[in-house]
Each structure stands twice: as structure tokens, then as C-alpha cells.
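User: Show me sequence and structure for the first protein, then do the same for the second.

Assistant: Starting with the first protein.
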Amino acid sequence: MSENKLTDFVSPETVINFETGAIKASTLDAIITLLPFEMGFCDDNDIFRWYSNNPDRVHSRRKEAIGRHVLELHPKVAPHVEKLLDDFRTGARDEWEFWFPKRSGEESGQIYQKFMAVRDENGEYLGCMDVTVNIDIFRGKEGKHTPDTIDEFKAATPN
């Protein structure tokens, strides 16, 4: 399978208009890649449609998963996923979140994951979005802190 790029689907110069402003497709794609978390989306028919392509992913994703039913992608927990999506679809639930220890890779960490029902302005179910982040990135790291004063901020800001 060939590597698809944004330009294979839409002109990078295409402007996407939102209620809060407009942005070029290429800029939006670059911003999403920079976010310190990963996202995914399955539509109202539970078909996996999209994921952010962040460089330091918690969950590995394959482009081959796009277009497949989400229950095929998670066979070990399919009954739980199906129940969650049914709850989203019926409006019994709008979100679900949990934390768990990172299970793979060389780094340890605590992972936060949230699933959210995506609805239009009329409340019609459009699908499910998930957000995943290694929350250790928010813990204090040597040399990084939040300045308490504007003078501290100026001193820490590169010239």
C-alpha cells in the first residue's frame, strides 16, 4: 500500500471555514501532528475513519485500519466497545475516560484516554472521537517550570 499524503485527498491550499475562523488544510494537518496527544475518529456506522499521525504515539495505528469496522480492530474488548458506542448513539452516555499504565515501549508512563460522542448542533450522533495522552508529559521535568512572575518569564525566554 502506498503512503498517502494530505495532497492525495485535498489541495493543501483548501481553506476550511469554521465558526471561529478559517485555516488552510495543510496548516491544520501540521497543527494536529504537533499536538501532545493523539486522536482518532469512527463515524456513526462505527467505521474507523481517521487518526492523528503524531510522531510519539501511545497506540500504534496502521493506515490499513481506516475503513474497517471498529469492532474488528478491538476483538478482545468488542462487547465493551459495542456497548459504549450504543450508549453514545442512544444518548445514554456522552463520554468515557480512564487511566492505565503504559504497557509497551521502553518508557513507562501513565496513559489517559477519553472517548467522546460527536454530535451536530441538533444533537444527532456523528460518531466517536478518542483522545489519548501519556500524562507524564505534564509532570515536572528538570529545567521546565511555569514562571511565577513576568520577570521570570522574560529571564526564561530565549532572545
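Switching to the second protein now.
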Amino acid sequence: MDTDKKFEKLKEYLLSLESIAVAFSSGVDSTFLLKTAYDVLGNKAIAVTANSQAIPQREIEQAKLFCRSEGIKHIIFNSGEMEIEGFSKNPANRCYLCKKKIFETIKLIAQENNIKNVAEGSNTDDDGDYRPGLEAVKQLGIKSPLRYAGLNKNEIRKLSKDMGLNTWDKQSFACLYSRFAYGEEITEQKLSMVDKAEQFLLNLGFHQLRVRIQDKTARIEVMPQEFQKLIEEENRSKIVKEFLGYGFTYVSMDLNGYVTGSMNKTIDNIKTSKAQV
């Protein structure tokens, strides 16, 4: 099925839902989904954003700005997932615990606003990785319209560009919890370190990136085409100085480059170590 037909399938599906609360992060996928839902359903489509310690404030502000500019009703709530017992220990099902709490709250918000359905923005590219959060989506009956329509990331970017959305070439983003190796404790201090480090790299002009943290070592992932920019002496010395100032002990570069879900490789290590105990 070509992209235009998938887009028509998406709009038909959204229309069939009658009313929808979109879990809105201001990312590429959720922005495209929200805009399309609003175009189809008007005021029967609303945006709900979880304000989490793992979401940089710039993303929250972008979400607010988009909804104001489009005239979309926007509700923001404090997610509070760090209060879940055992969550800060960063277990392998961390994403499931987080998504379950967030979507349970969004469902309540939807009910309070007479909205029949809740939707999230995963696409078909999300099917191949370790995504425990999608299990929570399934259990709670959350809709995944982009996956239903068969749309992948590149198609969503193309359609977003055609619609005039400035998010069409925005870098992919995942919550800051994904920067931690499973089993490593998540703290407010470390979240802040990662947030500041990634913002610094963005300010330097790097596009798609991650700063992974293990103990107090920063492992920088950028696209291979930006390797040279990263190791240019002026940038390298600035990055090291800033990162050490944030509290990192070591600053390293991952020669694999940017890889989605690279911390998922540590799951097998956890299972193996537990089996050997």
C-alpha cells in the first residue's frame, strides 16, 4: 500500500473513533497524529501530555506552543512514575511500569472530558525492538492509529512535510530513562546530567544523538556523518569540559554511532548474571 493510501486509511480510522485523546509528546509521530486527528475530528480530538522528570522542558514547551497555535485543547499532568515502587532501580520492565501509569491517567482524563478513546503515536518501525511499553498499551486498550494504518517513520516524516509541520525533520526522541543501562539506579541528579549534556550537544548543532550513562561515564552517540565534528579539537575540548562540569567522570564516544534502543543490549546481560547467581 502506498503512503497516500495509508494516510487515507488513517483518517478513516480516526473518524471511526469519534473522539480521541492523543498522548502528545511534541515528537514527530505524536505531532503528526494529533494534527491529523484534529483535522478529522475537530474539537473531539484533544492532546494530553505527561510532564515527567524524564522529559526535557523544551519538549513540554514545544507541545504547549503547538497546541496553542492550532487551537487544540491541551491538558498537562504530572506523571509521577518515579514514585512507583522499584521503578528507580531501573528494572527490565521499567517502560511497561511507566507507560501503564501514564496511560491509566490519560484514560481517566479522557473520561472526564467525554472522550471515548486514547491513542498513542507508535509506528510500524517500533515493532522490531524491545518495547515493553507496547504491552501496557495493549492491556489498557489504547489505540495505535499509525501502526493500524501501516505507516513507518519515513512515511510519517514525508506526510508531515507535506502538511507543513516543522517537526518533519525533528530528531527522534525517547524519554531520558532510556539513557540508563537496565539495573542502574535512576536518580534526579543523573537525569539532570543527561538532559544538560544532550542539550549542550544540540546547541552545538548535532542533530540525532543520545548521551547514555553508565555509572558516571557518558557515552555519546551521534550519526557517523557527524563523527568528525564531534572530535574536532574545539568541539571535543568544549564537550569534555562541560560534561565533567555536569558531574561525569569519563566522556566517551560510541563508534557504533546513534542506535535506537542500544541500552536494550544489556537485558541479556542482566538475565545471564541472574542465572549465574
